[in-house]
């Protein structure tokens, strides 16, 4: 296991914890959900053989602290955090970016706000539900989650949220949640500790986000939208696939479901490398790094 270099970065309203390992073109990994830098432990070491891999805890999660713990959370601010990481670790050079779930939403905004800093974005199941024809239904879901959190508490709100993400007519729990690798299981306490912040701040702030589709159309050659092989029909997959269709780009499938990064880390990492290699982004970023 590679021992990462650990640092902290002061940004607007927060201090970010980050970790860097490896050599080569910068690959910034943006976590989603309640995952922080540790959610990439299963793939970071292998990727570090070819890249400088940077991971971090998003503001308010794990070791990244907020100046105001009650502050509302906005996609643009989280994307600016990612931009500040790029400026710190790869000043002036376009980088490779992977974002998962809510982290993929931040990655989409990063691409539209700072395209000159991004060689390629791989966005795995960003739940950009505002692009869907039935977006109004999902606005109701978000309101229901917030109201349930206020009146009944965390776990009932999580139940409402999870039910809204499942395939239509599917009353079972997602298969990806049944068994976790040891590293993921060890993060369970941290995950539970961050849930109130995630449900109360991240879910409403991110799932109400509408990406600039017209802007993304002009940048689609730098964007790879992806979903899990086991996810078709689930809300984040539907949103990502619909966006790919609107942009006229190929939709990639990763092993596992929405949390394939956690349940199938080796296969997930290998598929990511294949996408970057086949797209030519890896070579382009490497050439710029060598200049």
Number of domains: 1
What is the number of E strands? Answer: 9
Provide the residue-averaged pLDDT: 91
Could you say what the CATH topology is called? Rossmann fold
Category by helix and strand content: alpha/beta
Report, as a whole number of angstroms, the end-to-end distance. Answer: 30 Å
Q: Helix and strand succession?
A: EEEHEEHEHEHHHHHEHEHHH
Helical content class? 40-55%
CATH-wise, what's the superfamily?
Alpha/Beta hydrolase fold, catalytic domain
Radius of gyration: 18 Å
CATH class: Alpha Beta
Q: Which architecture per CATH?
A: 3-Layer(aba) Sandwich
Global geometry? globular
- Report the β-strand fraction as a percent range: 15-25%
Helix run count: 12
Low-confidence stretches: 172-178
Give the biggest sheet: 9 strands, mixed
Overview of the molecule:
Keywords: Hydrolase. Pfam families: Abhydrolase_1. GO terms for molecular function: hydrolase activity. This is Alpha/beta hydrolase. The chain has 12 helices and 9 strands. The chain has a single domain, classed as Alpha/Beta hydrolase fold, catalytic domain (Rossmann fold), CATH 3.40.50.1820. Helices cover 47% and strands 18% of the residues. The longest helix is centred in the last third of the chain and has 20 residues. It is globular and about 50 Å long. About 2% of the residues have low confidence. The chain is an alpha/beta fold and 291 residues long. Helix 2 packs across helix 3 and helix 4 runs antiparallel to helix 5.
């Amino acid at each position: 296991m590679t021992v990462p270099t650990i640092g902290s970065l002061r940004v607007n309203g927060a201090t970010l914890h980050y970790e860097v390992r490896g050599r080569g073109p910068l690959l910034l990994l943006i976590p989603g959900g309640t995952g922080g830098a540790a959610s990439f432990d299963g793939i970071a070491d292998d990727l570090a053989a070819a890249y400088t891999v940077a991971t971090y805890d998003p503001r308010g999660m794990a070791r990244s602290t907020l100046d105001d713990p009650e502050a509302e959370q906005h996609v643009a601010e989280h994307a600016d955090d990612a931009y500040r990481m790029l400026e710190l670790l790869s000043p002036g050079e376009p980088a490779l970016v992977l974002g998962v779930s809510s982290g993929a939403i931040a990655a989409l905004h990063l691409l539209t706000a700072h395209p000159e800093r991004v060689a390629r974005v791989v966005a795995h199941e960003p739940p950009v539900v505002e692009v869907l024809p039935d977006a109004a239904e999902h606005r109701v879901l978000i309101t229901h989650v917030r109201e349930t959190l206020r009146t009944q508490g965390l776990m009932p709100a999580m139940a409402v949220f999870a039910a809204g993400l499942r395939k239509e007519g599917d009353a079972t729990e997602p298969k990806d949640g049944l068994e976790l690798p040891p590293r993921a299981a060890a993060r369970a306490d941290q995950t539970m500790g961050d849930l109130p912040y995630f449900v109360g701040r991240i879910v409403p702030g991110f799932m109400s986000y509408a990406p600039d589709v017209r802007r993304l159309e002009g940048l689609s050659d730098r964007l790879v939208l992806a979903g899990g092989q086991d996810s078709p029909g689930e809300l984040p997959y539907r949103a990502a696939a619909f966006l790919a269709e609107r942009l006229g780009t190929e939709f990639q499938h990763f092993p596992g479901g929405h949390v394939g990064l956690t349940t199938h880390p080796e296969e997930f990492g290998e598929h990511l490398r294949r996408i970057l290699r086949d797209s030519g982004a890896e070579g382009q970023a490497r050439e710029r790094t060598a200049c």
